[in-house]
From TrEMBL:
Protein name in the entry: B12-binding domain-containing radical SAM protein
Transmembrane segments: none
Swiss-Prot/TrEMBL cofactor(s): [4Fe-4S] cluster
Recorded superkingdom: Bacteria
Length: 581
């Protein structure tokens, strides 16, 4: 029997851990081929590729980001391969399963929940007696009726063979994200999350975990993302994994989802002292700082402790942090969400992910949608369109914040300018991103592409027109130019502003800078560029104050290396100097 299991990943660099678990668990009995595509691939191309494999059985792993695209492909395959057995599995079809069976008449079976054992047993019946009622945890059709079998007991994780050791994965893993889990389940009950449905947490054997990670590193893995819902819930287990990774990382980067307010001080101290810089990344779901909201969604969270953890990690300078927010939760209107945003932004995470509530099938919040006046899209990803406190108009405005936040804060293209604008020029970070997002949308920029230069020119266009009383344009313009220079590995050939040094002034500045730096003028002209600020950059760095009495000469030296250019700020001609890389 020729079995193919497939999925549509969100991006090419992603890999499907679920498919690899299914293959590994059934490998002794069935030869299974994995076929991975992306949601951007044409449906016809995917269907043609699967058709060429001549499968007897095709299984698809389904999520909110790929279900609608998968349905199109399934319907195509059913028309050109009327005898093929088509199975679906994954979180998107594990709930409201009868709905999916009735909607998708091209589908023969749906595997519900944890799928390894169910999938194997289903393959046994497809190739054997076809007594599908013996297979727990799935749906099938009999005489035109949908039959759903009883749920399957949870699997002993330690009987699952490795999903990571397929020969065909050894080369790709060097260029793709490798997903890894040390546990299944979540101890929390957040009503917007599917993980709240499964009670209890189960762990893989710690020695097995170490062996698998060693194998992945040995075979060139560069980024391993742990998919555990709360990696640090079992402190001793997490600490042992942290220590193992510290001792054996060999440059591989590891990303974890952690719950920050339960992180113990001794764990933070251990990481601050021992974690190699840049090897660990933490993803922390804050979602909201509004107490009534957290109570309504059964989310226990101590924001004071969470903040302490985030700041402690940040002060160590070793671990990047990605904090998540969800707009549209119960009891949160536009103003309280603004406060949530500003509360979390004050922690200055390296990345702040602003998402919007998805009314996922099977979650308590979807079941109670009417209680809070929710309206939402009926098709995946089921994004909320409004509720009793946050109408659609507010959602649209906050989406503009999300757009510019992603481009201008999370991308870290102009950190100096951003820090000035959100800290000194605008009443709050949210107010800046909202004003800029409104301006961005009004000019139609959200519907067209952009190059690096466009981001700088569009921000400057906004700042030139905005009447914000605290905004000092000379400062913003100077910092924006510094950020632009520092975005290049090589001396930029093109500048987006017109304010340039006159030739005579530039020649004098070049001679002065070369003398100060002990360089030949021709070498400096080849490897560097010169600009000026109308204020003292040293005073600005040290005191955050604008001093117009002592302009600064800026020298940028380019080496073409990953480290980027070096910025040297020289007094012009006398006074304080500042330098940074």
């Amino acid at each position: 029997m020729n079995v193919v299991i497939a999925t549509l990943n969100a991006k090419y660099i992603h890999t499907s851990l679920a498919l690899r678990y299914l293959k590994s668990f059934s490998q002794g009995e069935f030869e299974i081929e994995i076929a991975e595509y992306t949601i951007k691939d044409p449906a016809m191309s995917i269907a043609a590729d699967l058709f060429s494999k001549k499968p007897d059985v095709i299984g698809f792993s389904c999520y909110i980001w790929n279900i609608e695209e998968t349905i199109v492909i399934v319907d195509m395959l059913r028309k050109v391969m009327p005898d093929v057995k088509i199975m679906l599995g994954g979180p998107e079809v594990s709930y409201d399963t009868e709905h999916w069976m009735n909607r998708l008449t091209s589908v023969d079976f749906i595997v519900m929940g944890e799928g390894e054992e169910t999938f194997r047993d289903l393959l046994r019946q497809v190739s054997g007696e076809q007594k599908y009622h013996f297979v727990f945890g799935m749906a099938y059709r009999k005489d035109g009726k949908v039959i759903i079998t009883p749920p399957r007991p949870k699997l002993d994780l330690n009987v699952i063979p490795s999903p990571h050791r397929f020969e065909e994965d050894t080369i790709p893993m060097r260029n793709r994200v490798v997903y890894f889990e040390t546990s299944r389940g979540c101890p929390f009950s957040c009503q917007f999350c599917l993980s709240s449905i499964e009670v209890g947490v189960r762990y893989f054997d710690i020695e097995w975990v170490k062996s698998e990670i060693t194998y992945l590193i040995d075979n060139g893995a560069k980024l391993i993302k742990f998919v555990d819902r709360t990696f640090n819930i079992k402190r001793d287990y997490a600490m042992e994994v942290f220590q193992f990774l510290i001792d054996n990382h060999r440059g591989c980067v590891f990303q974890f989802e952690i719950t920050a307010d339960i992180m113990r001080p001794e764990v933070l101290d251990f990481l601050a002292e021992n974690a190699p810089p840049g090897v660990f990344r933490f993803e922390i779901g804050v979602q909201s700082t509004n107490d009534p909201t957290n109570l309504a969604v059964q989310r226990r969270q101590n924001f004071t402790k969470l903040s302490r953890t985030v700041m402690k990690v940040k002060e160590s300078g070793k671990i990047d942090q990605h904090l998540d927010l969800i707009a549209g939760l119960p009891h949160e209107d536009y103003d309280t969400f603004r406060k949530t945003f500003n509360d979390v932004f004050a922690l200055r995470p390296e990345e702040l992910q602003l998402g919007f509530l998805k009314m996922l099938r099977g979650t308590g919040l979807r079941i109670d949608a009417a209680k809070f006046g929710y309206v939402y899209s009926e098709r995946a990803p089921y994004e909320m369109l409004g509720n009793d406190l946050m109408p659609f108009g507010d959602i649209v405005r906050i989406k503009r914040v999300e757009d510019v936040l992603e481009k201008f804060w999370n991308a870290h293209r102009m950190d100096r300018t951003m820090e000035y604008l959100i800290e000194k020029a605008y009443p709050s970070p949210f107010d800046f991103f909202q004003a800029f997002g409104d301006y961005w949308e009004a000019r139609g920029w959200s519907r067209i592409g952009h190059q690096l230069e466009d981001l700088f020119t569009r921000l400057w266009s906004f700042l030139e027109e905005d009447a914000q009383p605290e905004l000092e344009r000379d400062v913003a313009f100077g910092l924006l130019r510094i950020d632009y220079y520092l975005q290049h590995k090589y001396k930029p050939r093109k500048l987006w502003w017109e304010d340039r040094l006159e030739k005579k002034e530039w020649t004098a500045a070049l001679r002065y800078a070369a003398d100060k730096l002990g360089m030949d003028e021709r070498e400096l002209q080849k490897k560097g560029t010169i600009d000026r600020l109308p204020f003292d950059y040293g005073v600005w760095l040290e005191e955050g104050r604008v001093d117009l009495s002592n302009p600064t000469l800026l020298v940028f030296l380019y080496s073409g290396e990953e480290a980027g250019p070096q910025l040297v700020a020289l007094p012009q001609p006398d006074g304080r100097a500042a330098a940074l890389k």
